[in-house]
Design brief:
Layout lengths: L13 H23 L10 H12 L17 H15 L4 H12 L14 H28 L8 H13 L4
């Protein structure tokens, strides 16, 4: 035997229900629009500075995202680095000097395309070396496997007749 739970009638009046629904809908809309609003990216007063910043930022790696250029990253550190590059441009540094400054500060990793030098040989040639070693290893393995296989002996006439009898037995009605 189950008792049925009943709520007081005045608690869920249709008008109160609509009011609560309206308030919750308004709150949801308000919070969704506030959460998508973002701070505008600062632009330099000089468009040439901004163009140089974009060009340099495309060649630098975001230190947080690691697989994204500094120009396309939205991480806070990327914003700080872009602001630092903007200040260096305004101070009159050329692109190569700015990159050298950032490499000295953060290492070769900050460059999206690191220069070819002994310290970065593994980055540049490592994948090709791994591919060559993998192909050579697979070739040696397959040759050793083929040499270890015992060739099959040909069937005798008696064995051939038994096989034909078995195969033809399936065709008979």
């Amino acid at each position: 035997m189950h008792r049925r739970l009943t709520l007081p009638q005045g608690l869920f009046h249709p008008q109160l229900h609509r009011l609560l629904l309206g308030i919750s809908l308004a709150a949801a809309l308000l919070t969704s629009t506030l959460s998508t609003a973002g701070e505008a990216q600062p632009m330099a007063k000089d468009p040439q500075v901004e163009q140089r910043l974009n060009h340099i930022s495309e060649e630098l790696r975001c230190l947080v995202c690691q697989n994204e250029s500094l120009a396309s990253s939205r991480a806070e550190l990327a914003n700080d680095l872009r602001e630092e590059v903007r200040k260096l441009i305004v101070d009159g540094m050329d692109d190569a000097t700015i990159k050298t400054y950032l490499v000295d500060r953060y290492g070769d990793f900050v460059l999206y395309r690191p220069t070819v030098k002994p310290l970065t040989w593994v980055l540049w040639f490592g994948p090709f070396l791994a591919l060559v070693l993998g192909v050579a290893g697979m070739t040696l393995y397959l040759r050793a496997r083929r040499a270890a296989q015992v060739p099959a002996e040909p069937l005798t006439d008696t064995q051939r007749q038994k096989v034909n009898a078995i195969l033809n037995a399936g065709d008979a009605p």
